[in-house]
Design goal:
The structure holds two protein chains of two kinds. Chain A is mostly beta strands. Helices cover 7% and strands 44% of the residues of chain A. By secondary structure, chain B is mainly beta. Classes of the chains: A mainly beta, B mainly beta.
Chain lengths: 196, 207
Amino acid sequence: MAITKGVNIGCGDLQSSGGIRNILIRSCVAGDAVTYTNSATAHAISSIVDTGGSIATWHNYEFKNEIPTLSVAATRENGSTAYESTLTFMMPEMDSAKGAAIQALMDTCMMAIAVGNNGKYYVLGLSQKYENEGVNPLRNQTYLSMTSAEGASGAGVNDDNGWTVTLACKQYEALREYTGNLNLYTASDPGQSTTS
Amino acid sequence: MAIADGMAINCSDLQAVGGTRLIAIREWVSTDIVVFNDTPHDITSIQGVGPVAANWGVFESRIESSSLTVAATNEGKEFTTFESTVSWFIPGLTAAQFKGLHDFEGGKCLMVMVIDNNDATSGTTTPSAAFASNKVIGLSHTLYNDDNAARTQQYATLASIDGGTGTAFSDEIGVTVTITCRSFETPRNYAGTIALDADGLGLTTTV
């Protein structure tokens, strides 16, 4: 793809805040429909819905503030560039509910939306490059998975007690921004959000 | 054939991506209609008798685990021997997968089409609807012994299925399937029409 546009940096970009505000996670399910937006000025996903065709339900994973990070590292070998994206967050206090939450992250192929403090929605685990058949967004095997979970009680009374969870995915395109509708903390279930 | 031109390497060649996108397999039928075009060294038709579209099964693999390798040797004769090998890893070790593998066991004579990742323009992410960047093994037109494509005896055949459960929980469970063929020319490109089925698990070739 030829370079047809450059990038401007405006005042708003310079005010962009760091850190993550919300983390939403769901399992990839057969029948999910994903709409990708590709142009010279957009590399995004405009819709994520499940087999019902109207919404997709996400689960909110809360965390201790100012700890979660999203990082992306791209490396190029020959004609292919691989993007390793990592989302890390800390759930304070190791208890039964947190243990169950971590159990749910095992053995499943996931996608996640990390909402930045700059108001942007970053999608992990969904990518279009090398989607090997173009008939199903889940066939490209670039899912998000839990790569580590570290629990620690700490030693001192002032130490943190909790789980640090790392989710990672390897994709072959830059991280996409979600530009569709996102309803955070829907009233019907305070632990859920929806995209449409 | 005289060497009339050399070969250019362009920027787009340097962006070529490794690995395979799809592996399609079908069993040879003696009445298959195969048309070779030796000028560009490709195949312009793979069809069933009728002619009707030829049906292929598409085999998915674990991402970045499948490959086509070609090794050519010449022993000072007027022909060169090409050993082509297609292999891919199937994770899971399930009954349905074994059934799929069983379908091309038993000494079946196969043709295999390997479609790589180079149809899409570099930098774009949309999967290409074209399947032009492909290579076919199990079909060849050099040293064929009769004027019938099925008589070349240069079929692809199942060479091995290796794998198992592993021992540790973190081991891979699955099998690596290897299909080989011996021919006397480089693998050809299929220049006809390739249409992927709606579910992505089959394709058809026509002229």
